[in-house]
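Reopening: D-arabinono-1,4-lactone oxidase still failing for me.
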Amino acid sequence: MENLAPELKAIAKDNHQFRNWANTFGCSPELYFEPSTEEEVSEIVRLAVQNKKHIKVVGSGHSPSDLALTNDYMISIHKLNRVLAVNREKGIITVEAGMDLHTLHQVLKNNGMALSNLGSISDQSVAGVMATASHGTGTAFGSLPTMITDLTIVSGTGEILYCSPSSNPDVFEAARCSLGCLGVITRMSLKVEPDFLLEAKQEPDKFDNVLQNWDTVINSAEHVRVWWYPHTDDCVVWRANRTTKPVTEDKPSWFKYTFVGFHVYQFALNIARYRPSMIPSLTRFFYDKVHSTPTHVVDDSYKVFNFDCLFPQYVNEWAIPLEKAPEALKRIEKFIQSSDLKVHFPVEIRFVDADDVWLSPSYGRKTCYIGVIMYRPYGKPVPYKKYWRAYEDVMRSLDGRPHWAKAHGQTKSDLERSYPKFSDFLTVQEKLDPNGVFVNDYVQRHIVGKKRFAKL
Ligand SMILES: Cc1cc2nc3c(=O)[nH]c(=O)nc-3n(C[C@H](O)[C@H](O)[C@H](O)COP(=O)(O)OP(=O)(O)OC[C@H]3O[C@@H](n4cnc5c(N)ncnc54)[C@H](O)[C@@H]3O)c2cc1C
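Support: Ran it again with your exact input. Result attached.
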């Protein structure tokens, strides 16, 4: 810290402690930087090269894995959050990549625009959701990075590079989903649509019925998601379509959804840490009392896409070819039934169209994401590893690709086999980051392997 140039000293902190959202991973970077210009980012990268340090850029810290960790230099670009250009005619917005999605929605709304699709929350940074190919749901909608039309990245040598399908196209293709290992992305342009209202209906259904009428159910609306309640044969189907109907005014019942669905549920899950055999009855109770009630809402798209993800959790989520999903779900049901595992609800089932983002888990194939969860009531630990092993065995055997943000057991060679563009990605990675500045344990384990970079 003492030896830093004054302009870097002004934006650096030591003793920073980083914990991810779920409080499952953390690190103590030697220096933590909060730049507000691309030039400052570039200076930090040059300093890291000179001092033989690694860098990790962190967004909002929501990834449930060690993806964003480093004990060397951590950069947060949350101060790089300005709107740079709005083109309503073309439906394109350019923003600095540290902007969070909540802010982006407001900026878009003020300009009569909206993202076409979205995941469950909007707390993440724009760069963060893209870096892991985060997704929403809808069989005709690709992963979120399909929205990117151009971007700017500060490479591992400090060079500031503009990329688009016609300018540095290989870097553009790789950097749409970069896992933070190509450089620091500082700006992005996104293709958006005119703002719209969504009408969402949530209805109870039988799990068997969903599996038997798979194609009809998953294509029954523009955006469909299914929550299955393990240990029961029940599920909930959420369907959302664009609408011109008026916004609904009813407020969801505080007693049902906040008191019972959140507080009582968390309290009950905490007791179940000592008596896991209670879990199936808890699932039945909360399904009957809270989740089986049909709901209907019309509101701004981004409000309807987002959900309350309750409390900290362990999660695992893989993408498998869409047509293999019913088999995967039946096999997951079978191993839960035939073992002594007691698992939390829901199993979340979402859909993504095939896309062309090199490292997107939906690259080249229509995809079903199946997510499993074990909540950590009051942040306390619960057993999950046996569940994850059995789940991953099923997903692996069906050609699954793990969500990059979530901790998973795939090796570099598994991933190389699974992604046709993996070696092209590595070529760009070597070109942009020849010293391995952006390599951390996760990137070494899953992407670059044991290859010795100058500094590793
Ligand atoms: C409650 C919850 C709900 C979620 N819901 C969904 C969902 O519905 N769908 C889904 O697909 N995922 C979901 N996720 C996962 C989440 O979208 C990803 O973990 C996402 O990457 C988090 O964004 P972040 O800004 O927090 O990034 P971080 O977790 O901080 O970082 C993620 C990666 O992005 C890289 N990165 C960040 N900024 C930059 C930058 N400027 N340049 C280059 N690389 C950068 C980091 O180095 C790291 O590799 C959810 C996670 C949580 C905790």
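The mean pLDDT is 96. If you still see a failure, please send the error message rather than a screenshot.
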